[in-house]
Amino acid sequence: MVSHARRKIFLPRITLSRLLGLVILLSAACAFILLAGLLDAPIRGSSGHSAAVGERRGGSRGKRYADYQVRSDKVEASAPGENGAGVMLRGEELNRSEILFKKEAFNIIASDMISLQRSIPDIRDPKCKELQYDVDLPSASVVIIFHNEAWSSLLRTVWSVLNRSPPEYLREIILLDDKSDREELGEKLEKYLAENFDPNVVRLVRCKERQGLISARVRGAEAAVGDVLIFLDSHCEANVG
């Protein structure tokens, strides 16, 4: 005769207090997930629930100058480089550009032909244009380090930042000269900046001795007064958005 022993199953002892604690913990977790979802939801700016959440966070959300762009010069749409179009060089101009390319490492002849405030296409991904930001944002100091940068590429960088940055967020642009010795970057640059920009917005800071990129950035950070620091190359163009 074969006997079968019964297997005993031991269950953890759950008291009423432990069960109540577990219910409270699960309820708190659900409430936290729900609250996080509401805070991260897009604010549509309507009178509905989403707008109310935005007000509780200290400000609404919305498209923040998605296409902000100004321009003070007047050029034809067919002018060299407009809307990011390429510049075709021929003859003597082409020969000079090839010679100077060895020194400048870019086509300075074509750059000098293009307006300092030229238009450029909006190359953002369509999804980037849908992003929304808090309207109440900190101010920014844009620091541009340069050493013997070409005239047109340097100033085109400055104009692009100034023309495509909402003024309430752009505290200043600091041009940090890491001891350049190109003639046009001396008094000529100082005169141009004084004649074309607000001295409280575009400032020129010169180093008495060559610092190198990182030390120059530190100097720029020390001179800045904005809430946020943005470091840019001296040969780039800021776009809209």
Description:
- This protein is of the alpha/beta class.
- The protein has 7 helices and 6 strands, in the order H-H-E-H-H-E-E-H-E-H-E-H-E.
- The strands form 2 sheets. Strands 5-4-3-6 form a 4-stranded parallel β-sheet, with helices on both faces.
- The radius of gyration is 29 Å and the shape is elongated.
What is the mean predicted local confidence, pLDDT? Answer: 82
The main sheet orders its strands as 5-4-3-6
Low-confidence stretches: 38-65
Order of helices and strands: HHEHHEEHEHEHE
End-to-end gap = 86 Å
Explain briefly what this protein structure is.
The protein is α/β, with parallel strands linked by helices and 241 residues long.
Keywords:
241 residues, alpha/beta, 4-stranded parallel β-sheet, two-stranded antiparallel sheet, 7 helices, 6 strands, 36% helix, elongated
